[in-house]
Specification:
CATH class of the largest domain: Mainly Alpha
CATH topology of the largest domain: Tetracycline Repressor, domain 2
Distance between the termini: 13 Å
Order of helices and strands: HHHHHHHHH
CATH superfamily of the largest domain: Tetracycline Repressor, domain 2
Helix content: 55-70%
Number of helices: 9
Number of strands: 0
Number of domains: 2
Length: 203
């Protein structure tokens, strides 16, 4: 799985970037999310506001940078079968949503996106749409292999893959995102596509 190598902002000094990322990982486990701020971040990182804003236009841009560092913009792998390909995608989702950073990062980046159209556009174009495009290409390979019929609404299928875990991740009081849930989504999507279900498959 491939992560984006293109970074937001100006050319980096690696140590400052590492300190900011470390500070972020510490703070989201220590303070209420509503108290998160640039000042708290730079104070913990031992850097300055000027250094921060030379790299990022806003906190939202910083959050997206963290996403791009830790999570794949192309979560696909050509395993040779639709069952295997979908398993890879769903496993990547489960690992993302159960990552130690996810609990704090998801609400922060969503809030930033609601407040700042620039951040929302960056999240969409640099992460969400790249993932969706990769998944659509994967589905087209399955059609070309003859595993499934051409898909009338491929975007709806992508929604079927991505919405359930996101729903559980962002709403309070939901059940765990675990391997059993991953398998439930997998079977539902395969059934909706009229594809064979191989319970022994393991890419």
């Amino acid at each position: 799985m491939k992560k984006s190598s293109q970074l937001l902002g100006r050319p980096r000094v690696a140590e400052i970037d590492q300190n900011l990322e470390r500070a972020f990982e510490e703070l989201i486990n220590e303070i209420p999310l509503r108290e998160f701020s640039v000042q708290k971040l730079i104070s913990r990182a031992g850097t300055t506001r000027d250094a921060f804003y030379r790299r990022y236009a806003s906190l939202g841009h910083f959050f997206i940078e963290v996403i791009l560092i830790h999570f794949a913009t192309d979560p696909t792998e050509d395993t040779g079968s639709l069952h295997g390909d979908l398993t890879v995608i769903l496993r990547a989702q489960r690992e993302m949503y159960t990552h130690p950073l996810a609990k704090g990062l998801i609400p922060l980046v969503l809030e930033a996106s609601f407040r700042d159209p620039v951040t929302a556009e960056a999240l969409s174009t640099r992460f969400i749409q790249q993932q969706r495009t990769a998944v659509i290409e994967m589905l087209e390979r399955a059609v070309q292999r003859g595993e499934i019929e051409p898909i009338a609404d491929v975007h709806f299928v992508v929604d079927q893959l991505y919405s359930p875990m996101l729903f559980r991740a962002v709403l309070p009081g939901m059940q765990a995102i675990d391997e059993a849930y991953e398998q439930t989504i997998l079977i539902a999507v395969l059934e909706s596509l009229g594809a064979p279900i191989n319970t022994q498959a393991a890419p």
